[in-house]
Structure prediction request, 293 residues.
Amino acid sequence: MSNLPIKAVIPAAGLGTRFLPATKAMPKEMLPVVDKPAIQYVVEEAVKAGIDDVLVIIGRRKNSISDHFDSVPELEAQLELKGDATKLAQVMAPSELADIHFVRQGDPKGLGHAVLRAKSHVGDHSFAVMLGDDLIDAKEDLLSRMIDQHTKRGASVVALMEVPPEHIHLYGVAQIEPTDEDDVVRITGMVEKPSREEAPSNLAVIGRYVLSPDIFPILEHTAPGKGGEIQLTDALEEQARGEGGVYGVVFRGRRFDTGAKLDYIEAIVQLACEREDLGPELRAWLKDFAKTL
Ligand code: G1P
Prediction:
């Protein structure tokens, strides 16, 4: 098993029911966060961690995702003619980010099933799984830390985050024991979307994974679990009980769940406030607006 260079896998075949009606005809991964679709942030995060090969698992009605990462010669020519270098760079950026591939999931049978669709592209190599709903602050180095831990320990690594009890049922939750490193834990068990009472800890899996390829044979025999879907969490539970184990990196930085409406709005406001072109005016407006609340 070789570790680097690793490829990234972005499952994007889900139906996006949490964001209806916006996602009725449009993939949720294409919802703009300020002025870029959510999925572009995820690809940029992969590139920042040194990954240059990205596989996106898509489903029906998801063609706008592949269009976004393609070049648009007629638009590029027009912007060039106008001499608008800024917009030209913005249009060209997604198609120049990385080597992006697509595979179809057909019948979406869960996250574990989606990850299994990456098998022939990834082969016998480690790979990162990045869920498009989770937006990690670009200033953070979470994925690089996970890749380092994966290389060091030769085992799958998941990102964990402390969440309040009222949100725990939305996540895969880890049972853990400490290691000799701060914020690195060994996973002894995992439960997909437990009730508050069943949750083995307050550490939820957020959508970043660095997986060893031996997850594939496990996924091949993983039976449908929670919600009748083939769950990646269940396969990781089995891997955690095996020889190599599974580790968790505890993330304490800023993360938005852009699949949830309130988090999505907060992400846009915070990220726009930090932008040089939009921030000053938006912050001033927000201060005035807050007075009216
Ligand atoms: C998926 C996983 C879950 C994980 C979550 C992170 O759930 O199944 O284990 O905690 O992503 O965002 P989903 O949010 O797709 O229902």
About this structure: The chain is about 35% helix and 25% strand. Residues 7-259 form a domain with the Spore Coat Polysaccharide Biosynthesis Protein SpsA; Chain A fold (CATH 3.90.550.10). Residues 111, 131, 133-134, 171-172, 192, 204-207, 231, 233 surround 1-O-phosphono-alpha-D-glucopyranose (CB under 6 Å).
